[in-house]
Amino acid sequence: MYNIKNNAGRAQCINNPSKDQSFDCSDILASLENMEVDGDFDGIIEKVRNFFTLNKVISNEHQFQLYYILANALEKQGEFSEVEKIVNQALKIRDISEAQMGALCVKKSNAYYEQKDYVNTIKITQDALLLDIANTVKIELTINLCRGYLMENQSSDAQIEAKQILDSEDYTIDQEIRLTIILAEAYYKQDQYKDAQTTAQNALNDLPNLTDDQKAHLDVILSDALDKEKANSHYTLSDTFYRQNQYNEAQENAEECLKPSLLHHLTDDQKANLYYILSDVCYRSGNYDEAQKNAEECLKPNLLHHLADNRKANLYYILSDICYGSRNYKDAQKNAEECLKPNLLHHLADDRKANLYYILSDVCYRSGNYDDAQKYAEEGLNRNLFHHITNKQCGQLNIILAEAFYQQHRYNDAQTTAQDALKLLRITDTQKDELNEIWYDAFLKQGQYGNVCRLFKGTCNEKAHLHAILADVFYKQNNYVMAKDNARKASNRRDWLTKSQMANVYYILSDVCYRSGNYNDAQKEAKECLWPNLLTHLADDQQANLYYILSDVNYRSRNYNDTQNNAEECLKPNLLNHLADDRKANLYYILSDSCNQQYQWGKAIDNANEGLKLHNHLTNDQVAYLYVISSHVLSLQDQYGEAQKKAEAGLKLLNLSNGRQAQLLDKLSEAFLQLNQYDKAKKEAERGLQLLNIPDTQKANLYITLAEAFFQLNQHDKAKDIAEKDLKPFKLSDYQNARLYVILAGVFYKLNKYDDAQTNAEMGLGLLSKLTKTRRACLYETLANVFYKQDKYDDAQKNAEKGLKLLLNLTDDQKANLYYILSVSCYRQDQYANVQENAEEGLKLDNHLAHDQVAHLYVILSDALRLRGDYDMVQSSAEKGLGLLNLTETRKAQLLDILSDAFYKHGKYPEAQDRAEKGLDLLNLTETQKASLYVILSGALRFQGKYDEAIDKVNECLRLPNLTNTQKASLYETLSDVFYKQDKYDDAQKKAAKALQLSNSLTGKQEANLYYILTNICYQQDEYEDAQTNAEEAFELLTNLTDEQKVHLHVIWSDALRLQGYYDQAEDIAEKGLGLIKTNNRKAQLLVISSDACYKQGKYAKAQDRAESGLRLTNIADTLKTSLHLTLIYSLYHNGKYEEARNKVDEGLKSLTLSDRQKEQLCDLKSKASSCTIF
Length: 1175
What we know:
Blueprint: H1 8-13, H2 26-37, H3 41-53, H4 60-76, H5 80-90, H6 98-114, H7 118-128, H8 135-151, H9 155-168, H10 173-189, H11 193-206, H12 212-243, H13 247-257, H14 260-263, H15 268-284, H16 288-298, H17 301-304, H18 309-325, H19 329-339, H20 342-345, H21 350-366, H22 370-380, H23 383-386, H24 391-407, H25 411-421, H26 429-445, H27 449-456, H28 462-476, H29 480-492, H30 499-515, H31 519-529, H32 532-535, H33 540-556, H34 560-570, H35 573-576, H36 581-597, H37 601-613, H38 620-636, H39 640-651, H40 658-674, H41 678-689, H42 696-712, H43 716-726, H44 734-750, H45 754-765, H46 773-789, H47 793-804, H48 812-828, H49 832-844, H50 851-867, H51 871-882, H52 889-905, H53 909-920, H54 927-943, H55 947-958, H56 965-981, H57 985-997, H58 1004-1020, H59 1024-1036, H60 1043-1059, H61 1063-1074, H62 1080-1096, H63 1100-1111, H64 1118-1134, H65 1138-1151, H66 1156-1174
Helix pairs in contact: 3-4, 4-5, 4-6, 5-6, 6-7, 6-8, 7-8, 8-9, 8-10, 9-10, 10-11, 10-12, 11-12, 12-13, 12-15, 13-15, 15-16, 15-18, 16-18, 18-19, 18-21, 19-21, 21-22, 21-24, 22-24, 24-25, 24-26, 25-26, 26-27, 28-29, 28-30, 29-30, 30-31, 30-33, 31-33, 33-34, 33-36, 34-36, 36-37, 36-38, ...
């Protein structure tokens, strides 16, 4: 039997063998299986078809299997129409099972889908799903159904079907992948972009075994969903901002929408509105090219019908106005006439209507259509629109109207119109001239010669016009002498020239003078042309050459600012293309140098690069200088590798002057210097110094570079000699002096001449703007080093911080050194937070520090953390420090001291003891280190209850010389506490007194503990007044005591007051103590004191309440119970509650342990209570 792999339908066919065994197909089926494994689908197709031609009688089961195999092979070969035919034949097999039909329908639906017949894909799949087939086949069919739905824009149906299957959890991994992709695509097509993103992202993150195609498909869905959402967001923002007249924001969002990645996600309606918004916004901002481009996009047939009439009207108006401005009168008229359609015109504002009629009138006038010109001019001059037109338009419309009448031989109307218009205040002089001319011609046509003479007598000078024309003719013939002569004569009669003639005459004079080397006159005449009323009359090529002349003349006179301004005007796109290549090249050259002279480095290198593209039009010397500028700027931008390349390229040029070679070698050696290639820097600098007759500036630069190279090569004496001897004859610039100060500061520091190093570093920083960031960093590092050596930690810190702000310009050695200096300086100034931050950074660069510096950083970091109370981090830091190899005993002692103190303050007393003992085992400890370790060790022993050992360590420490008051105070406090705990009250009291004599050296915790000890001792010795005094002192430091000490202090203090008869104060202190108590015994003690104090003050009810509260407590001492019971009895009695008092007496006599005297007193009280009750 043929085993159909990886296909649920085919697998099911095996379970339904036909009983008709007329011909055994087992061999051929096995052969076909092997061919399928080998991928020989062509062979399968040929073999099966050949077999069918034999017309063998075979069973239905074998027929089905052969057809299915054939269909599968055809599908693999992409012959989907043949698949459809084979499946149709297979479906005609008699007694075919529903399972087999389902498997065939999968193939058929696949074939329909691949042939893009999605309707039949859906139909065949829906029919097949009604069959009794296995679930896996149903899922395969459902997948095809969903694919068909997607292609037929039935995305919601696809979503429902796919989600239903995915919720069933009865599918293979491959089916899950395909269904998830379908679901993501369905969400996307329904504009549910969040769901599409989530589904696609989850699939990419969670589903295994995705093919590259499936990943790509999911990536596309994810990307498209994000882009679609982004596109809609930008569209909404653009439209909203536009409606709110926020045009810049509207334009920004519209342009984002129209990027290729987002544009195809927009509907035609959205595209139309976006193009309209952009067109209108660009038009309003004067960007007419962009406005026209977007308007034309909007006019495409598939978009235009999506626009509302008001937007169409404004769109046609914009196009009309732009076309008119660019002298495209045909399109201007065409678009303006579209605006005039009844359904659009009323949507235009009056100012736009007025301008529209002006455009139409002028266009018709220019094309000789005087009837329409007249009609539109009259509309434009209509009373309703008259106030919306400009002065120029007003004058022009009158001219058009008058000219139209003239051309229609309506001379009287023309004369009247011109005469009336001349009375208007809103027309220009030029327009007046034109109107006068029309009026003049109208008079002539009517034979009114007297009026002509009267109007124009003496208003025209033919010689001025003639000289202007001759100057232009000679100039175009390159006859510059005659051109200049006639232009000069014309300029002497300038009042009779038109502005266009006058501009041309000055242009000719400027260019001719420039060509003849008369630069002052060239500049003078060019400036005449720059008046706004003349400049607009020059063509673009004339303006370009005019600005070029001015920039070159200014450059020759070293007026770099004006050179730059005129050159940048020349570089505008509408002018630059009119310059010859040689002038372009020279323009970039002079602009690059002008920017370089004004320290505008970005512009200098940009223009140098442009000039180098035209190097064939420059001399070798100019090209070399452009390489000098490029190399210089790249060095300033820290691009030293590129600077090197530029300098080397310049040195390859032939026939360079020594001065230019020296400049290039200077730049090359400096680049090598910054690249830490000091030998090469030295070599190139020495090569430059061998050149003869080079300028002093270059020679000085080369000496400075050589000195810096020697400094970096640790040849400090040579560097110093160059700085002090070789450079002495030169007058150095600020830039050169700044470099020299950097070198000298470093040299003097290395020679341990710190004052000289500081002086030179500060002189260098006085010229900060002349230094590169790298050299500034060097100066700050030198100053930080100098101040650190002089123990001026504040100044060292400031300079180290300034140096580290230039982190990118520092070497790792410099960074490590500055972090070290900064850490130590902050530590010395108690800035512990800064210590931690900088020490940690320094330790990241530990391989760039000396071994002792690393150890020192661990010491100060650990101590800073200890002083900030971060004891866990102290342990980590100190242990790392102790793990360093070859650690000196001094550093080891410091770290063990810090670590033991951290453990001590963290309450880890065994660890503190261990580290302190290890520290004391070290040799060559200083007395200070010993004292510190003894203090910690004695304290650790004390808190572990090792009192005798603690006393011994304290006494050993006290024998050391030169103990600080802080150490003495700590040792006495330890002794006092130990003696107190050993019940040696006299000794404890004496040591406490000694410690308190040094109270300024005690911590708050130590001082509070000492007063607590003294309070206890005085109380135990019945010295209640002294106990009260010490308790009051301890109370001032209450927050430094433990919770138990606080409670105990309240007990002792309140009882001492009670025993002295200060009952109200005793009550008050006891009540405060009750707010702190957690244990019943302490609470009972305070309630005994409080109840007794209240009783003694006659507050019997309150005394009763306190006594009863105490008696309700469990697990309290019998003595306390007795005291509370007795107080309760007496309080009840004195409060007149005789019966209750008598009952409590009986209860007390039975349950309490009483003395005979107490029993006698209670019996007496009971008798009194009984008699009071009888009475």
